[in-house]
Amino acid sequence: MSNNVKIIRNAIKCKTCGMVLESKHHHDWQCCQCFKDSGGTKGCFVDGGTAYLRRGGYPNDYEELSETRPYTEEEIAEEEKRREEQYKLLYGDDYKEWI
Ligand SMILES: [Zn+2]
């Protein structure tokens, strides 16, 4: 697991134009009006959905609205299991040597 927190909501609010930007999935890139109008020299953007928190712009120019929480033990166990299954598919019964 690359992140140690689970992303519930990936969102920021631009303090200049007041737009709330929310990235809902991995490749959902959203930018605010001033970013559009200035050709990317002002304003801000978000990206990454619930996979990672990617931001553009100056941190002082936007308000952070994201929500994250730590993974539960069940989720971590589930992820391990999922990973193990994947390796099993790839390497057959010898998969444990590859983990
Ligand atoms: Zn803006």
Note down, in words, how this protein is organized.
By secondary structure, the chain is of the alpha+beta class. It has one domain. Helix content is 25%, strand content 27%. The strands form 3 sheets. Strands 3-2-7 form a 3-stranded antiparallel β-sheet, with no helix packed on it. A hairpin with a 5-residue loop joins strand 2 (11-14) and strand 3. The two termini are 13 Å apart. It binds zinc ion. Zinc ion binds at residues 14, 16-17, 19, 32-34, 43. Zinc ion (ZN) is lined by residues 14, 16-17, 19, 32-34, 43.
Would you summarize the structure shown here?
By secondary structure, this protein is an alpha+beta fold.
- Percent helix range: 25-40%
Mean pLDDT: 92
Main beta sheet: strand number and arrangement? 3 strands, antiparallel
Radius of gyration: 18 Å
**What percent strand?**
25-35%
Low-confidence regions: none
The best one-word shape is: elongated
Number of helices: 2
Number of strands: 8
Bound molecules: zinc ion
Number of domains: 1
Structural class: alpha+beta
**Secondary-structure element order, as H and E?**
EEEEHEEEEH
Strand order of the largest sheet: 3-2-7
Amino- and carboxy-terminal Cα gap: 13 Å
Layout of secondary structure:
Layout lengths: L4 E5 L1 E4 L5 E3 L7 E2 L1 H6 L6 E3 L6 E3 L5 E3 L2 E4 L2 H19 L8
Antiparallel strand pairs: 1-8, 2-3, 2-7, 4-5, 5-6
Task: Name some characteristics of this structure.
single chain, 99 residues, alpha+beta, three-stranded antiparallel β-sheet, 2 helices, 25% helix, elongated, binds zinc ion
